[in-house]
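Run folding on both entries below.
>entry_1
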Amino acid sequence: MSDWKAIKESLRHPENPVVFFEMTAAGASLGTFKAELFADVVPKTAENFRQLCTGEFRKDGVPIGYKNSCFHRVIKDFMVQGGDIVNVRLHLKLSIGDGTGMTSIYGEHFPDECFELKHNAAGILSMANAGKDTNGCQFFITCAPCDFLDGKHVVFGRVIDGMLTVRKIENAPVLPNSRPKLPITVAQCGQIYKVVLLGEGSVGKTSILMRFMENTFEAERCSTLQAAFFCRSIKCDGQKIELAIWDTAGQERFHSLGPIYYRDSDGALLVYDITDQFSFEKVKQWVKELRRMLGSSVQLCIVGNKIDLQRFRNVTLVDAQRFADEVGASHCLTSAKTNEGIEQAFLSLCERMIAYRRATLNEPENRMNDGVDSISFYGQEKSRGRRGCC
């Protein structure tokens, strides 16, 4: 079982977003942890955290987020805390917070969403606050069950992979005030998107993926059996995202397995061979299947491969572009052999996935109410006693 498949099967809800944090201590890698955000229960709290992870939230056009921020408080067997991106001092280009800063995508702070979820295990993500209804950017991760925090802090996620990295942070040497002696830094963070490659056999799906992953090309390549899985990070629209990519078999005998691999996908590359009209007709069938199974949430990029064989083209550019427009997809041309358009195809799909996410955020039911700005700001760090978390 692939890491991504294990992660997806462990999710509380299949549509909950998954984010990642690459951590360092004084520049040395501590590893990466991944977290599920409980958007099914606390959608606005989860969205605040997600946008600060991806960097897509902006103030005056400047991205605001957790990248290069530091964990400022570590208490072994209790919790590790970070996320102060406001009251910071710059040290070696790092944003080291003092633990009193507060901001959010909704304003300075926002109300407690609900207390349904509990601090019942290690690896729980919860909002730090300065009292009732003062959620902002700061968060903590539990290192043990902390039921005494229930009803006081909003739980919004959990670590689903990389708990060893959290344990390394927990065991970092600290000063008497619980501040780490070495900067524990978020070197990179973002969201993970699931992408699937679909298309008829021999259209070049695996060749496209190998160009994208390893910048290699083999003229003679064995057909994919069932599916193969890969991961790669890519920078798009000013943010780093992680792609979990499924390369599916194109042979007819494997088509019944398709739903297993494209279920819960955020995006799909639908590949046809520009010299093969039949492969283009099969793409049309895949589009219908994806829309039937996943609706409009899955973002599509239709890819015409083998443009190095332009003189043998049987699918006109006009027809391909017209169909893409009709189904709300982008259209790209590629050649895995000559490495043309490969990166652009993946970027095009990433742009669509990010744009879709932003569009859903702007729907009225996904916005915080206007009463947020009237909440008083405490601006004081809570007592450092064990029950005074954050």
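>entry_2
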Amino acid sequence: MARIQLPDSTDSLRTSYKFNIPPILQPRLTWKYCLASAALLYVSYCFIAGTPLFSSNLPRYTGPHDVGAIDIEVPVREPRQIHGAVFKDNAEPAFELQTVLFTLYYPAAKGAKTGKHHLWVPKPLWLTAVGYAKFAHISNSLTNNLFTGAMGVLVGRTSIPAEVDVPLVSTEDLLQDVLADVSPSAKKTPRPIQTVTSNGLPIIIFTHGMASSRTQYSHYLAELASRGYVCAAIEHRDGSGPGTEIIDSSESPATRTNKLHFGLEDVKSSPHSPDPNSKLDTEEFKHAQLAFREAEILETTHIVHSLNVAGRGEKILAANSRSQGSGAGLPSLWVNRLNINATILAGHSYGATGALQGLKPGKDMPSIFAGGIALDPGKSSGRLNTDVDVPLLIIHSTSWSSKHSVFYGQPHFNVVRKIAQNLNKKGIAGWFMTSLGTSHPSVTDAPLIEPTLLKWTTGAGIDAHEGLRQYVHVSNDFGRYVTSGKMQNLLALPANSPEYNKENKGMDKEWREYWQVHVSPVGSS
């Protein structure tokens, strides 16, 4: 009988029996292995924690109220073509107004939760991605897929913290003065957050800039909502956004249409033109876009104001193709809760140009708007309306004030300054100031989501959170002025520098790090 020779020791036993570990799992302390391991750990962490890859989650809001959000899309009162231009590829109207879409941010009932949040990039994600590829003039099947994949990785899971479809805050829970955890200026002694609650909740109608959408200013608007404002962020369908889905509930079943970014090169002046390449000139195209935006602003304002009237909210809720609003208490909780006489029209960049245009006397809008906020009025979005007859707050980012730009034969800075100066000459309050250390995107969500990348590419010197916080504080002070006539904090200071300058001499010490005031009604003659 054959004998089996056993190992002489446990050591030899250990060496005789080895597990075969796949080569890919065998540790190697090379830089490639360490990098791959770190990447795998990071992706796993993001997946488990529910955070987006290579970006930050949007922060919670700092005001005294919780914030709710609902999407509303309803057919307009009179569907119509705003301009006769058509798309070259299919001869369909380019500026046909069918519905309006906006997100409504509002102070919500304390502690109300649904667990639902709007995505920062709305579905379908590819629509936004392909739109940005079109903006970059590199749209084809390969780049479209690359843009879609990259956007999905970077921000596909990013959501807006506001709770979707929760009830409006009750009258009893509205807070007047709640101690903040951050000073609006030097972040030292806490100061009261001032909320506006008398005579109903004030309203802000917001219009976005070029290459933007309704979701990209969510933090600025939701912060104001946490302070007692009802803010409507419009999704413009004038070609200035990357992409939008139009859901028209006026037909049964509702129709869905995808509309991508389009520019001057994509349209021709008329479907009846014998020349297939007949073009609009640049000024006419911008005029058409601004006219379309103006119509959307009017429709949105009408809808928001209708929420305040008994019997009208039901119709809006029934027509809303986004199927939201019932949880928010539409229509019952909203009746007689809004201060429609304190409606402010606000916008950024192209949106600021549109807001100024909308405040021009002689139109319907000045009768429904009590004030305006213009953030970085456009430098290439057409002429700025200089004739305004309501209080106006104009804020430039540092990148907007510091860069000299010729605007229709004049320095852009001078044109903007004159708008505020003319208001004060008429006895109407006008402010023009620069937010120091900020760049053009500072009021958007982008620096909060990608702070390092945006700081590197735009040159912003201020912390992204602090920069946006400054915009919120001053906008809130302006809202209080519109509702009460009281100037406070930065708005109570005289101008310290008619021109932009880095030294910021003469500015009150408390605000010197953050603001430079060029025009103010305080001390104006």
